């Protein structure tokens, strides 16, 4: 839980942005945005739930399933009357839909004839959710406000930064656990188990939360595809592994990727790692307030281009709090066309992996933009890890 | 990977159902349905990806992000030309949308003037996905076919049942790990870490996969709300915990919940546990082929009603393979109005938790409907676990 003052600032910033976007209300389905504004935290986003924000209402309204309402009362800062719930026979029903109930609440609050922003491309705001709201709110003007609240989240408070620093301590431990566990004859799932244990155990000072993506640790030729998770295959000599994992503290994430080899790194893999590391160093140096996201990508492109390499995917994105299935904020991306200017207390996953037909190398950093530059959250050797067999 | 014969049967059953629903094609976004038909398995569903099935095409077409296409080639049974991908500048862009690309592929295949089913209320089929398809496919008739493929999945093959039996062995180990770890002074996250390690380590014979929901282990008054995850609070004497977890083997789940108390169970908690157990025994006895889902719920309602208890939520649902955020199939629910008849090789999570204002008790079973009755997948004492402090 954050302080009431911090929630007030978040609400105020959200309302400011609503005025800019020209809406009087918001229907928020993205669980990260719900948590950000209210503090609500539970694994209940597999059923429909929303937070309503209106310019002329002091508190948001939380709406969810009946059995989750007591959790909302316990984890949010709002008064009990701001927690509303629909009966269980709305859940996965072919007759009723939870958004019918949401529409009824809006009518009851006299907010059904307003300009209301919806998160058209947000996880958990399905096509059916939108259709039912359109039917239930014939007098409203539903307008796509995209990731409005996510854009408010882009600038972190000092408390949020401190959470991410805790998360970074956790990801260091998790990456070390992976290195300590991986070996010839060990099964991939055993490394995943060691990572996950370290992520959730956290440190002796604070516990870890679940990460919004599970460990991704493709091995061998599977490293050509970065989002493969794991199997129970046993590692063999010469296997290359890319490990993309995160630490998470109270839903705040710091991802980190490293590449490990069971044996000596072949020359062509070492070369790619060296190019990536040069690119990271150069890019980090240029990640100063005032630089644009596009310019960050240009530094990277120029640096690896000198060695004849090209990357045809964005090299990073804004991070912070999140819920599955993604730890990205879906706001700023380091790529051509993104003219967002870096500012102090923005936070990014600098993700310059390079993937080829039958292997890949991932080395990444979570980065905090400070007053005069960039610092990595985690402190973990940025090298190709060779594990030689005993 | 399943046998080609099993994929052929799945495709054929899907096409039969498409004929019943009156569609010539399907655009599938639900990752569980994608995996079921193609074998594609990666944590990449946080970007748009679909599988297309058309009555007049032998193979499905997989469409995803460029960097995930090599994973699709490695994990699916289809030929390389059935794997299509969109460039990275479609990802989380405000200019392009991956569904624009999907529409282009449909045009290219001459399938854009057909009756095409979409999963209107499926995770990851956002309102924006639907809007862009409507714009990109002006000659198609997009029709909500709901959980069409999920309904095909309701009847399990023997191989699927064997996967769920592996998952059950895993959940037994994970629940035991929870019991062994929990104690006064231990932090909640340490129990979650032990559970997760056991889930992913699996057994010495086979490894575990990640579960579609993380462990939910509210304690104390938080047990009134079943989907709370964990914090780093230390357990105190008298704490009651409800643990709802699953085992997962190659994406197939068997959930299980138990309730534990740090000390002697208070009389009112023991009474609730006894009522639930009587209800489970009676309900399991009546879960025979030919019984309807509604009748299963009636047996439960009658049994606990004799003791003055009422439950105002469904008491179970169909389970099998799944991806986050849910391990339910969103098909059959044990509740009034669901007239689906039980058949051999259907599988359910019998979930009769009872939640009150300041505590709850969860004791559940994953159940396999056999030729003449029901058997639980896991074998784990169905009692209130008291952990007395040393």
UniProtKB/TrEMBL annotation, chains A, B:
It holds the Pfam family Creatinase_N. The lineage of its organism: Bacteria, Bacillati, Bacillota, Bacilli, Bacillales. Residues 10-154 form the Creatinase N-terminal domain. InterPro entries: Creatin/AminoP/Spt16_N, Creatinase/aminopeptidase-like, Creatinase_N, Pept_M24, Peptidase_M24B. This is M24 family metallopeptidase. Residues 163-371 form the Peptidase M24 domain. It comes from the Bacteria.
